[in-house]
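Table 4 source record.
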Amino acid sequence: MRSGVKVTIVGGIFVVVASGVGYGGYNLWNGVTGGDSDIGTRSDDAPRTGPVTNEEVTTTAGEFLTAWAAGESDKAAQLTNDPVAAGPAVLAYREGAAVSQATITPGTPVGAKVPFTVKATVTYEGVSKPWSYASELTVVRGESTGRPLVRWLPTVLHPKLTADGTLRTGVAKTASVKAVDHDGKELTAEKYPSLGPILDELRKRYGAKAGGTTGIETWIDSGSTTVPDTTVLVLTKGRPGTLKTTIDADVQAAAEKAVKAYGTAAVAAIEPSTGAIRAVANSPAAGFNTAFLGRQAPGSTMKIVTATMMMQQGLAMPGSRVECPPDVTWKGVPFHNLAHFKIDGGTLTDAFRRSCNTAFIKALGPLGERDVEDTVLGTTATRSFGIGLNWQVGVPAADGSVPESSGGETAASYIGQGKITMSALNVASLSATAKNGGFLQPYLVARSLDDREFAKADRLSPEIARGLRGMMTAAATNGTAAEAMAGVSSPKGAKTGSAEVDDQSTSNSWFTGYSGDLAAASVVESGGHGGDSAGKVVAAVLRAG
């Protein structure tokens, strides 16, 4: 066995230590398997079927982890069900990530899953640093051979590694950044987990502009120009440049805590008077930034736009009488209110505060006061609320979409279904626009950093802005949003929403509102009615403002 390589038993568990540039993999492999390179495939062994046994799980996991720790990428790959993908990935772990020593310790198997810990040393140009993390693998039976094999997933090597990603160690691509909130408080992914992907993107875009210098790091190269790389270890720090964001640390902390109560949820908060983004949070915190990039039907929060369209088109004002029957049909497509409720002799404000679907459809359809063209809702969303324009937030963000529709989809659009898609940031901007009386594009970093062009929209007329705020206030004080907004300071306004999703038994919960100079919106997947879950998230954020 080569110098620097040994296999020992600690507490009955294999611990493989492989050190040195060459890893000593060949001799290590022989020491574990007796030199048989055809593991589990001897001619006298008939292919097995059925679930893998406990012994197979333990043996296969041990052999794979041993080969990996030894740096034998080909050997490790052949112990997986996808050697073509696994081989280069394991090789890159050793060579690309510059891992000079690795100790991999399997834990107690749970069924076919085996957790393990990795304690490695990364060495680059004379600089070394320990690197520790935990992951897991699953043993399955090969479909054609019947052999027990490790199910290949990139996350076996590292929990954040993706199929397109590659581990690298070297001089960092971008300069270090110290992100701070609008008052100068430092923002870190450790304290504010939802900001992790956003801070990576800010560093990628603005690291050089912030005046920082690069260090030596280990990172996951995403393999994409649109997805930021993820740093997993810092060997030597560069000198960070300070990057000021619009985030409010206190509001961000409240947002993180609020969404954490739900499995899949997102929230965004905006200062209406400026467009400054004060918070963004997601659950789960890591990965896809649903709050900015989500494309989901916004449900009845869309009635903010529909009510504006009705006022602008001269169909109804807040005090106008509108019909709210239990059910209505639009070009052969039936629609109804929750529990088929109705409002007798009510106004547009009553329909808004109680979220009457039929009122917003009947007044606009061929059987109502006027047959509005299918494009008017989208035009109102763009011209008055900036939806669909090119938002230059500072990091990737969806702009929202209200496309032209026809038939029953037009009626569905009026109540936030159909083809309409928005993110929590888009819906928060609806409330911010109502509160401010005009759209101000949300932004996360100053425009002066890169001279990007902000999206612009027409201001609401004073009469329509007052009417919209009045209806939102009614919803927040004496309507569907009242319970959630009970502890929120005035002046306040809100709108609830629930959006049906084809493959879900329970609708998504939506809620948007404002209090003082802070507006927010949240979506909770399968959260039910707007005030049930999303309303609690928004209220918690607004109280922190």
